[in-house]
Amino acid sequence: MEEAKQKGTEKKKKVRKKKIIVPKPKKKLPSKKVGLIKTRETRTKKKLPQKGKRKRKRAKKAKILGPHEVVLFPLSTEKGVRLMEGENKLLFVVNRRANKQDVKKAIETIFKVKVASVNMLNTMKGQKRAYVKFSFETPAIDIATDLGMI
After folding, report:
1. Which domain holds residue 119?
2. Residue 31 domain-assigned?
3. I want to staple 98 with a disulfide (CB 3.0 to 4.6 A). Which of 102, 117, 131, 134 is the partner?
4. What's the chain's Rg over C-alpha atoms?
5. Strand ranges for the chain from DSSP E
6. Number of domains making up the chain
7. Would you say 71 and 103 are in contact if contact means Cβ atoms under 8 Å apart?
8. d(CA 92, CA 48)
């Protein structure tokens, strides 16, 4: 009985058990069908512009440059002279908007020679240079003497 009294007189400690939260299994969503066939009505339906979006304008067509507008002037530097003698090339400063095909056509019309290839270089000063390689039939030195470079 003494044991029973001791048990009764002792204060019982309250033990709180922590609840373990078990995550619920996620529901599987139905798989989406890929590549649905669209009907003719949906393809021809005109889409309305979204709110806040503006209609884009087309870029303006570039102005066609003439041969004398493309080629501005020839350059005669040490590197240019070395290219002239060694690789049959001349160095020109050209318009910023000109591309390789424009430069090739312009030089062929101005000097009446055959151009083998054209390489372009944009300098840090804002110039565009064209390294023009001539065919073997026309040496670059002859063109340079006609221009008064040599």
Report:
1. 67-147
2. no
3. 102
4. 41
5. 71-75, 89-94, 115-122, 128-134
6. 1
7. yes
8. 51
